[in-house]
């Protein structure tokens, strides 16, 4: 069944329906993507980001979901249907562990639906150079989501918020939400820079402590 992101029901209602249809135990990532189809790629992106909208994410999920979102961004940039390599399509997703995180992530969708305004600054959300820049920023957010900092609080949350803002902004042609997505990307880069810088300083101090520096 293909979900339609432009249906009359709200994004939250559509996502609730998708969560309810998840099987117990696990399912292949490819089977999950097939339920959305190419017409529902942005709704799929929102669905995949929900699990990261909590301070600490489920280990191992960010790589698979981040890769899928990255391919969604590339398909949008190229104007081509979504393609997923067989290895990624067959990746098992622990639905029983994901469902509670997905339910909690819906709180963010409800909040953003309240502040989002359809057709607000639409020129910033679609078409021309703005569309290319936005899709590149979407791809950047997916790459940041895949960064190996999943054990650090908020390292997955910040890029997930950026992706959620981009997806809602694209769906509703809301340039304001898209601009907030760019700001969330910047905040993620700053946060990662602090993590990397702090880690380097800690290593340097350790070497000095043991007389190796």
From TrEMBL:
Hydrolase found in the keyword field: no
Keyword Manganese (UniProt): no
Task: Report the superkingdom from the record.
Answer: Bacteria
List the Pfam families hit by this protein, alphabetically. ExoD (PF06055)
Q: Which UniProt keywords apply?
A: Membrane, Transmembrane, Transmembrane helix
Residue ranges annotated as transmembrane are 41-74, 121-145, 151-171, 183-203
**InterPro entries attached to this UniProt entry:** ExoD
**Record PANTHER family:** EXOPOLYSACCHARIDE SYNTHESIS PROTEIN (PTHR41795)
Q: What is this protein called?
A: Exopolysaccharide biosynthesis protein
Traced from the root, the source organism's taxonomic lineage reads: Bacteria, Pseudomonadati, Pseudomonadota, Gammaproteobacteria, Lysobacterales
